[in-house]
Each structure stands twice: as C-alpha cells, then as structure tokens.
Amino acid sequence: MGPRVARRRVLLCAAGGIVGLASAADAQQTRARPAPEPLAAVAPLPTAASTRPADAAPQQGDPLELDPAAPLAAMPDIGVDWPDLSAAPAAANATARRADVNALTRYDYRVEGIDGVASALLRQRFEELSTLAANHGKEANAAQLDRRAREDANLLVTLLKGEGYYDAAVTTAVASEAKRPVIVLQATPGPLYRFAGVTLNGIAGAGNKAAALEQAFPVTGNDPVNADRIAAAQTRLRTAVGEQGFPFAKVGEPEIVVDHATRTATLAVDLSTGTARRFGQITANPNNRVFDAAHVQEIARFAPGDPYTTSGIDDLRRALIQTGLVSTAQVTPRPGATPDTVDLDVRLEPAPPRTVAAELGYGTGEGARSEVSWTHRNLFPPEGALTLRGVLGTREQLGSVVFRRNNFRERDQVLTAQFAAAHTQRDAYDANTLTLSGSLERQTNIFFQKTWTWSLGAELVATDERDVIASTGAPRRRTFFIGALPTSLGYDGSDDLLNPSRGFRLSGRFSPEVSLQGSAFGYARTQIDASGYLPATRAVTLAGRVRMGTILGAPRDQIAPSRRFYAGGGASVRGYGFQAIGPRDVNNDPIGGRSLAEFSIEARVKAFGNFGVVPFFDGGNIYTSGVPDFSGLQYGAGLGVRYYSNFGPIRLDIGTPLNPQPGDSRIAVYVSLGQAF
Question: What local confidence, expressed as pLDDT, does residue 257 receive?
C-alpha cells in the first residue's frame, strides 16, 4: 500500500462578517499545534516555607525546596524595564515585582509576514476586529498586552485560513522601540491551498438550464480555497436558480475536504432544483383593507404564464411598499394548480392612509409662499387618493381638490383629475382663474426612476385677467375661455432624480389650445428642455441646461397673459426676479412673449461633510416673434449653497444680474428642494 494521506472534511461557515473554514478535525489539529508564545512569563512566587528540620534528609515525594540563597533567574523581557531588586529585602522584592507587572504603559503594534499574501479585505477585517487596534492609545499592563496579543494571533490565523493558507501560524513578540513597547505579530502563512476539484451534485436536474447555473458558481479547479469567494458563489447560485425559474430549489452548504499532504481540497455543493415553473395566480388576504389580488396583479411586472423569477417577486414586494398604503408586504411562492406553475400568496398589513403636509418657500419676484395639504391615499380603493390643497402667499392664493389614482390599469400609470380656483398676482398680470383638468401619465419617482415618461391631458380654463396695453400703458381687463390638450414626452438618462451627477435628460411639451375672447382662435405651445451632467472629479460635477420655446398661430397680444412665455427666477435665469426678463411695457413691467431661449451652466462642488457650493452662470431672453433670434440675452451669475440631506439636496442660491434692465434688483435669493435642474 502507498503512504496514507490525511484528509479532513470542512464545512464553510460565516459569522460576524468573517468567513472561515473549520471542522472538528481542524479543531483537533489546532489543539495539537503549539499556541502562540506568551509575550512574557512571570516566575511563580514562592509557596509557604517548609516545616521540616533544616538538617532532615529529603524524602521521596517531598515538595521542591527553595534555596533562599540561590540567585533569581533572569526576568523576562515584557517591554518594560524590571527594577533592580538585588539589594531589597525579600518581602519588598516580591511587592516590587508585582507592582512592576501591574505597571501601565501605552503600546504600538504591527503585523509582519503577510505582505504579498493578505488581501485588502483581510487587512480591513483584522483592523476592525483586532483587540490591539481597538485599545490602541490606551494604557495596559503586561498581562493585558499578553492576552490581546494572543487573541489577535488567533484572529490572524483564522483570517489567513479563510483565504486558503491552512498551515498559517502566528507568533507574538515584544520589540523595544522608541519610548514604548511594540507588539509584533509575526505571521508565517505557509503555502496557498487550491481546489483539485469542484462538484455541483444534482445540477443535471436543471436540464437545459444547467449551463447557466454552472456559470453562476464560478469557483473551479485550481482556484484558491478562499472562503469569501465560495460564499459569494453560493449566494450567486441561490439567486440564479430563482432567476432560471426554480422557486423551490434548495442549495446545500458547501462541503470541503482538505488534503494537507498535497495541499489541495475538493468542494462539493448539493443542489436540488425541482421543476422549472411559470407564474400562476395571485391570492391576497381578504381582510387586508388595502387592495385585492386583482390590483396586486396590475402592480406586478409579470403576468400569469410568464417564467418565474425571484427578481419579479422582489420588485413586486418593493412596489407594494412604495404605494404608501402598505406597512408590511409578504409574497410567498406556493405550488400552483399544475406542476409547472407557482401561485403567490400575498399578505398585506395596511399603513396609515392619511397625510398632512406643509411647505414654506421664498423667491425674489414670487414673494413668500406657504402651502398645506391633506390627503387620504385610499379613500376610493384601490389607491384612489383625495387631496385638499391650499396655498397662501404674498402674490398667490389657491384652493384645489385633486383626485389621483396610482397604478391605474397598469403599473406606474397615474390618472389625475383636478379642480382649482386661484388668484395670481404678477408684475405682468393679475388673474383670477378656474381650472378643470385631467391627465393620464407615466411618472417617475426617487424609488423607481423611469427612463421614459409621458402624459396625455385635457384642460378647461376660465380666467379673468388684468394687464395693460403695451404701447400706451392703459389698463385693461379681459376674460378668456381656453381649452387645451397638453402632452409631454421625457427621457431621463441621469443617475439620480434629485441630485444627478452623470448622464443627460431630454423632454418636450406640446399643447394645442383654443381660446375664446370675443372670437375663437387657436395656437400651439411647444417647449423643449435638455440638460447634461458630467463628473469632473469625485467632488465636482459640471451641469448644463438649455431651454427653447415657441408659440405659433396667434399674435402675442391676443394670447392670454398667463399663457405666454416668461423668463427669470430660480428655475430660469437666476439673478433676476420671477418673470422679469424680456420686453416690457411703458410702466417697465414684463409683458411676456411668444418664444424664449435660456441656458444655465454650474459646477456642483462637494465642500465639506454634507455641504456643497455651486457657482453658476445663466442667460436667456423672451422674444415677441414666434422663433427666438438669441439677441439681447440677459445674463446672471452667483453662488449657491447645498445641504445634501437623505431625501435630496436643499438649495439656497444667491444671484445678481450682469446686464440688468432698469428696475432690476441687484440681488436675488432662491430657496427650494432639489437642484436647479
């Protein structure tokens, strides 16, 4: 027979953020291996003096006699100088020795022998879990240093084994350097163990999906026996079996057999996939008082008959919570009516359905503004919300009733109907307006940011407006009845809804309108917005915006003042008052126009902590013609401050006009939530 090869069976385990390889056999091997040497050993104190006569012959079994005249052995080096006790009485010697052992000192530490073998993750884990590191800078006595060094030596051995160094050993020592002792952990990693074979038992049961599951478990022969890589592969395999349509698959714990003679190991994972299935029916607990199974199916991104995926289940669970009507959502797969289907048992716990919100703001030209609203988010199930909203400001007052149904007939579709009565006071006009509107739209939000958004709407407006005749300045009052069909389409390729740092956005709005004021006439409003974001450094993002607009089909003076284009303000050209840019009447008040052109550029700089600064430069103008000619641009510049909260940046911008018109303020201030664009 050939030589006998020692093999050990090892189970992969993970706890407390450290992944290690261990077994009963390894534990036995660990006990057999000498433990790390102590930093210092203190000689035992003498026991009570013997009562035998001094001249009596020693007897077998007698305790060892101490010769009081014999010199003491050399004291061990623990990094602290021992006192000279040669001239002290015996009792004083013992007391001094005990006092010196208990003397407190600060220390340093270092690890040697792991350069070139230890990963960054191993070093990070050691620093996070090290007892020496946790107490560094604090005073300790010799016994405490010895205990901490032993604990860290065992920790380092465990971490090295987790990366495949099964013969790793660590010794401890004290180096006398500078003014304090230095604890040295000297590691001897030994050879790196590698896999001689990797087996997924039962993968043949996956049929034609076996290849995809094998790719999801990337550990192969000759790979290091690394616990983190094995745990990550196990997680990927569990995810993959669900994505490949196996809802009831079972993935066993990895089992490793280590061969110390050849410094290799074998890895085996038991896999039971079961039958690949498709989505069947959804059932919901009937007393959940939120919404029924039919509405859950509308929210789901999958339909009955689609292949089962774990990601589809996770997405449905998040979407149910996102409605705001559910505090807890449990989605459990159950065997379906046929062997190839899986039903979903949905258990919902309702959340409080009512919300009261308030908002305060200020803008130069807009004045102070406060808003309060009350919402019942499920007054008309499912997800039929009623909102009562009021605005009270120095230049605006409004009251409205809004009906909104989320996830209307399809995921992410929103049906809205609104009736509003408002009084608006601007430099350009004063209007009392009644509005009845409705829309069907696909919206985006911070939880499910959409790439494409759109809206289709209808609007009826009755508005009584006061302005002046531009040429003479004579006041006038007119009543307009307007019907509009506003539509929009948007693309969002940015990385964040409220604070983008890369990508771009593009959107367009088109609204054909019919106006009745004396006689009926029609026109079309079109506006295009584009913005881009580029990270210049880790702390600086460059952002730019362009806006173009046109109204074709009617002269400016015939169009209601509230339906014209205006520029200036916190969301337009900063540095100017709200709607203050563009042509003006004889009273130096803006009159709006039929076209506009705007641009903005800014640098978003993370300054310190959650604060940032934003220098900006804006420009734009309003034109009476139907197409902008880019002449007479008004420029503004300034500096903003951002506080990056967990729900988005809070913005404070202070700007000044660079080429102001008569009457423009030298300073404009804007406060809002979110970036300017």
Answer: 95
- The H or E element containing residue 400 is strand 396-405
Two tokens at 80? Answer: 């602290």
Query: Pick from 439, 427, 432: which is nearest to 468 by CA?
Result: 427
Q: Which domains does the chain have, with CATH numbers?
A: 1-19+208-274 (3.10.20.310), 104-188 (3.10.20.310), 278-350 (3.10.20.310), 500-673 (2.40.160.50)
Give the model confidence (pLDDT) of 439-466 as tens digits: 999 988 877 889 999 999 999 999 999 9
pLDDT digits (tens, 9 = 90+) for 139-149: 999 899 999 99
Using the predicted structure, report yes or no on whether residue 598 has a pLDDT greater than 60: yes
Number of H-type helices and E-type strands within the chain: 9, 29
Of 135, 139, 130, 128, which Cα lies nearest the Cα of 111?
130
For 128, half-sphere exposure in the C-beta direction (CA atoms, 13 angstrom radius) is 10
| The pLDDT value given to residue 9 | 44
Closest CA to 666 of 655, 651, 652, 677: 655
The pTM score is 0.71
Q: What are phi and psi of 304, to 5 degrees?
A: -55, 135
Under 8 Å between Cβ of 640 and 612: no
Angle value at C-alpha 195, between 191 and 197, nearest 5 degrees: 155
Residue 432's H or E segment, with its range, is strand 430-442
Of the pLDDT bands very low, low, confident and very high (cuts 50, 70, 90), residue 3 is very low
Quick: pLDDT tens for 532-550.
999 999 999 999 999 999 9
Which regions of 493-576 does DSSP assign to beta strands (E)? Answer: 503-517, 519-535, 540-552
Residue 200, classed as helix, strand or coil, is: strand
Q: How far apart are CA 402 and CA 370, in angstroms?
A: 18
In this structure, are strands 540-552 and 595-608 parallel, antiparallel, or unpaired?
A: antiparallel
Tens of pLDDT, residues 36-81:
444 443 333 233 333 343 444 444 444 444 454 555 455 555 444 4
The least confident of 69-73, 213-217, 642-646 is 69-73
Contacts of residue 15, Cβ cutoff 8 Å, sequence gap at least 6: none
- Residue for token digits 């884990």? 125
Neighbouring residues of 191: CB distance < 8 A, sequence distance ≥ 6: 165, 167, 263
Max Cα separation, the chain?
139
Residue 387 is encoded by which pair of tokens?
Answer: 């909102």
CA dihedral in degrees (374, 355, 380, 350; nearest 10)?
A: -170
The mean of the pLDDT values for the chain is 86
3-state secondary structure 294-362: HHHHHHCCCCCCCECCHHHHHHHHHHHHHCCCEEEEEEEEEECCCCCEEEEEEEEEECCCEEEEEEEEE
- With 50 as the cut, is the pLDDT of residue 318 above it? yes
Dig out the tokens for 63 from the structure: 């305790």
DSSP symbol at 658:
S
Q: How many Cα atoms are found within 13 Å in the side-chain-facing hemisphere of 54? A: 2
CA distances from 270 to 72, 221, 437, 535 (A): 63, 17, 61, 46
Number of Cβ atoms within 10 Å of the Cβ of 620: 24
Give me the torsion for CA of 201, 205, 209, 210, rounded to 10°.
20
Measured CA to CA, the distance from residue 584 to residue 594 in angstroms comes to 14
Contact indicator for 543, 674 with CB cutoff of 8 Å: no
CB 627 within 8 A of CB 638: no
